[in-house]
């Protein structure tokens, strides 16, 4: 990324939805199995109306009803109560007949992901580079000339694009087919989009056939895959919803924390300070901050393409790299990197300066930096001094930092406001992306 070029900055606030505990679910199922008639089973389900369920639990409940009409009626009772919408297609597949599968899909279309609290996304809008490009695309009269200019711009583009950038680009093209063609060229330039942004993109395409073609492309840009099923709302007819559903079933899990990693080499820098042992509830389970982060890291690494190179760095009062330099993202190296990170013990303070300095020494094209704190140890601890050196490092090696403040749970030494401010500035300086999870 060129020095001085600003990429879009957005902040994600994440919350968790809790499904019914195994003990309560088993108690409910035991009661359902003791009664014979469907209406009696439904009455029992109504007693658990405040609970939330996984897709697998819904399938188990449906198996207790003999007739499709009863199953479909019961399925409707689970509206907005399913915690893992990425697995929702399995519910429709549990029906025996194609007509019932279609009806089940229709019932589930538009279901929302149940959360505790609210998810809010703030975007800084399209980047200056894309705003300039949009103005330039307004000049050519013919589609072929617009697309040629667009391809030439992409050939020298050095920044990652977000949802606002993509929407602005779409508006520069007059015809639906041109918009689809332009977006098909953007795969290597996206930093990831949310389902809400994907829905806006799809609705700018007037014809279902083109929308489906575009969905097949942008599905792999989505970071909040748990809500992907909501994209069927972009289609009006049942046949199109079914086609969209089949496309969405092919989405691979993406780390919501790290997003879609596109640049190589990529360096992941993870905080292992003592505060990362703080526990919080996620999906009904007790996890430490570090346990959750390492699970997300494994997902991100597993999805790296073979051509990409990467490195992982753990830090607390010391900096502990997995490798002296980035290595290919083959299965052996990914397994080794994950195993290395899982054997590091969380302890001590937060050596942010030293960790970032080491990360830049790797000559990366992208740095994913995660911490739950502020600088406490290392060569430099003053925020202003660290930010000044980040500017120098970025000038020498323009590299976006995807800064993540992981603040789930409560720790006595947390200064969440300071951590958010610090990491947000790092992302802004380097043209990266800032995410906060609390």
Low-confidence sequence ranges: 1-17, 113-124
According to DSSP, the number of beta strands is 11
Helix content: 40-55%
Question: Given this structure, which CATH class of the largest domain is correct?
Answer: Alpha Beta
> How many domains make up the coordinates?
3
Instruction: Please state the overall shape, judged from the principal axes of the Cα atoms.
Output: flat
* Oligomer classification: single chain
As a percent range, the share of strand residues is: 5-15%
Cα(first) to Cα(last) distance is 29 Å
CATH H level of the largest domain: which superfamily?
von Willebrand factor, type A domain
List keywords for this structure.
438 residues, 18 helices, 11% strand, 3 domains, Rossmann fold, alpha/beta, 7-stranded mixed β-sheet, flat, single chain, two-stranded antiparallel sheet
Summarize the SSE layout with pairings.
Blueprint: E1 10-12, H1 22-34, H2 38-46, H3 55-62, H4 68-76, H5 89-93, H6 98-108, E2 121-123, H7 128-137, H8 143-156, H9 163-171, H10 176-184, H11 195-203, H12 208-218, H13 238-248, E3 266-271, E4 279-282, E5 285-288, H14 289-302, E6 309-315, E7 319-321, E8 327-328, H15 331-343, H16 352-360, E9 366-371, H17 383-396, E10 401-406, H18 416-430, E11 434-437
Parallel strand pairs: 3-6, 3-9, 9-10, 10-11
Antiparallel strand pairs: 1-2, 4-5, 6-7, 6-8
Helix pairs in contact: 1-2, 4-6, 7-9, 9-10, 9-11, 10-12, 12-13, 14-15, 16-17, 17-18
